[in-house]
Structure formats: structure tokens, C-alpha cells
Amino acid sequence: MPSRKKIITTFLATLLLFSFVHAEENFSEMSTQELIAIIGFVKESQKTKFEAELKQRIPLMNKDEKKKYEENLKKKKKD
Where exactly are the structural domains of the chain? Predict the structure, then answer.
């Protein structure tokens, strides 16, 4: 059974993701964690801006962010 912390984290990530997918975004105002969370869910019309912002952040990512980034890229490629 998943831990309470994992359930809460998943729930909050889902809410965050839902709000980002349905709103016009200024990606520069988002945290790196938020950008990583929405990989694969960005509207086609916003992909260029999203990818440019994410590309700027990659060199600044810490170890955990880079790991999550790579995991989300793999998930996106499978879809």
C-alpha cells in the first residue's frame, strides 16, 4: 500500500498538472519541479516556449531534479 506522503504528493502533483494544462502559461515563472511535472502535457501551441525554458534549466538542475527529468522524458517517449 502506498505511503500517505506518496498519496498526498501524487494528488498535489495531479492538481498542479491539471491547472497547468488548462491555463495559458508563462513557463519562466514556474519552478523547475513544475516544468518537469508537465513534460508530455504541454499544449502543442506552447511546446516551443516550454522546451526553450526547460533547456535553460537543465544545467542548473540538482541531482534529484535531473533524475526526475530523465524519468519523465522516458515516460513521454513511451507514449
Answer: 4-78
